[in-house]
Design brief:
The chain is an alpha/beta fold. It has helices spanning about 10-30, 40-55, 65-70, 90-100, 120-130, 155-180, 190-205, 225-230, 255; strands at about 1-5, 5-10, 30-35, 55-60, 75-85, 105-115, 135-145, 185, 215, 235-240, 240-245, 265. Strands 4-3-5-6-7-8 form a 6-stranded parallel sheet, with helices on both faces. A two-stranded antiparallel ribbon has the order 1-2. Strands 9-12 form a two-stranded antiparallel sheet. It starts with a strand and ends in a 22-residue tail after the last strand. The protein binds flavin mononucleotide (FMN) and iron/sulfur cluster (2 copies).
Length: about 290
C-alpha cells in the first residue's frame, strides 16, 4: 500500500503514475488566468464564478498599475472578462490585450458583460487576439444589470435578481465549455444595428473628455474611496476633495462605490440610485 496525496493505493506502480498525473494536472490548472476589468463588480462576479468552477485560476484586475502584467503573461489558458462600453471594448481592456504576451497555442476565451447588447465588442476582441497570432476559441455575452448611471437608473431589484440567477446558471455552462477546451464558440447577444454602431462609437471615445462633468457634492467627507477604486489612477485627492485627471475610462466605479452617494455627473445623477453587484465588496477593488 502506498499513500498518494492522502489516498491509500494498492499498486505502487499505479500509485506513481497517479501521482505524476496529479502533478501534471496541477501544473496545467495552475497555468490558468482570468484578466478582468470592472466598474461596478458585474464582470468580477462572472470572472470569479468561472475561476471557482475551474479552481486554481488566478484572477487579475486590469488596471493602469497592472499593465506590466500583460507583457509578462506566462499563462497559456487565458480568460478576459470585461464590460461592454458603447457597444465596444473599454479603452484599458483594448490596451491591455494589445500588450498581452500570448502564445499562439494558448487557449483564449472571453466573456463580455452588458446591459443587453454587446455590439461589436466580441468582434473587436477577436481581432485583437488574432492580431497576436492566437485564436479566440470561445466568446460569450452575459446580460447583467446596466450600470450606465449617467443616463439611467439601475434596473428594478426584481430584474437584477433575475439576471443574477441567470448569470450563475450561464457561468456553469460556460465553465463546462471552457474546461473542455471547446473551440469556435460564439455567443453574441444584441442587435445588428448595435454591432455596426459599435465600431463607430468606440472610435469616438475620448478618455480625456469623459470626466469633465463629475463633481462631488456637500455629502463628500473626503474618504478617498473614489480614488482607490479607480482603475486608471484618474482621481487625486486635493484638500480632501476628488479631482479628475482627464484619463477616464468612464467605468463609473468612483460614482457607484462612493459611500456617501456624493459623487455626481452633471445633474441627472443626484436622485438616481447607485448600483454595485451585491456579492462584490468595495475592498475587492482596492489593490
Ligand atoms: C460607459 C458605459 C457604457 C456602456 N455601454 C453599454 C453598451 O453599449 N451596451 C450594453 O449592453 N451595456 C452597456 N453598458 C452597461 C455595462 O456594460 C454593464 O452594466 C456591465 O455589466 C458593467 O460591468 P461592471 O460592473 O463589471 O463594470 C455600459 C456601461 C458603461 C459604464
Ligand atoms: S468616495 Fe465619495 S465621499 Fe469619499 S472622497 Fe470620494 S466623493 Fe468624497
Ligand atoms: S474617474 Fe471614475 S469613471 Fe473615470 S476611470 Fe476612474 S473610477 Fe472610472
Amino acid at each position: 500500500m502506498v499513500e498518494v496525496n492522502g489516498e491509500l493505493r494498492y499498486n505502487p506502480f499505479n500509485g506513481k503514475e497517479y501521482y505524476q498525473e496529479q502533478l501534471r494536472k496541477k501544473e496545467e490548472i495552475m497555468n490558468t488566468v482570468i484578466y478582468y476589468f470592472t466598474g461596478s463588480g458585474n464582470s468580477l462576479k462572472v470572472a470569479r464564478d468561472l475561476a471557482e468552477k475551474m479552481s486554481h485560476t488566478k484572477l487579475v484586475r486590469i488596471t493602469s498599475k497592472n499593465m506590466i502584467l500583460a507583457e509578462n503573461n506566462q499563462y497559456d489558458h487565458v480568460g478576459i472578462v470585461f464590460p461592454v462600453y458603447y457597444y465596444g471594448l473599454p479603452v484599458l481592456v483594448r490596451r491591455f490585450v494589445q500588450k498581452l504576451k500570448l502564445d499562439p497555442e494558448a487557449y483564449v476565451y472571453t466573456a463580455a458583460t452588458c446591459g443587453g447588447s454587446v455590439g461589436a465588442a466580441l468582434k473587436q476582441m477577436k481581432a485583437l487576439v488574432e492580431n497576436k497570432g492566437a485564436t479566440l476559441s470561445a466568446a460569450f455575452s452575459v446580460v447583467m444589470p446596466d450600470n450606465y448611471q449617467v443616463m439611467y437608473s439601475p434596473p428594478p431589484r426584481e430584474k437584477q435578481q433575475r439576471l443574477f440567477v441567470q448569470e450563475e446558471k450561464q457561468a456553469d455552462e460556460m465553465a463546462v465549455v471552457i474546461a473542455s477546451g471547446e473551440k469556435n464558440v460564439w455567443d453574441e447577444k444584441g442587435t445588428v444595428a448595435a454591432k455596426l454602431m459599435g465600431n463607430i462609437l468606440s472610435r469616438t471615445f475620448q478618455p480625456e473628455e469623459k470626466d469633465k462633468h463629475f463633481w462631488a457634492d456637500e455629502k463628500c467627507n473626503g474618504c478617498g474611496i473614489c480614488a482607490r477604486v479607480c482603475p486608471n489612477e484618474n482621481i487625486m485627492m486635493v484638500n480632501q476633495k476628488p479631482q479628475w485627471l482627464h484619463k477616464c475610462e468612464h467605468c463609473l466605479a468612483c460614482m457607484h462605490w462612493c459611500p456617501q452617494q456624493a459623487l455626481q455627473y452633471k445633474k441627472g445623477t443626484v436622485k438616481r440610485e447607485r448600483y454595485h453587484h451585491p456579492d462584490v465588496q468595495v475592498t475587492d477593488l482596492m489593490g
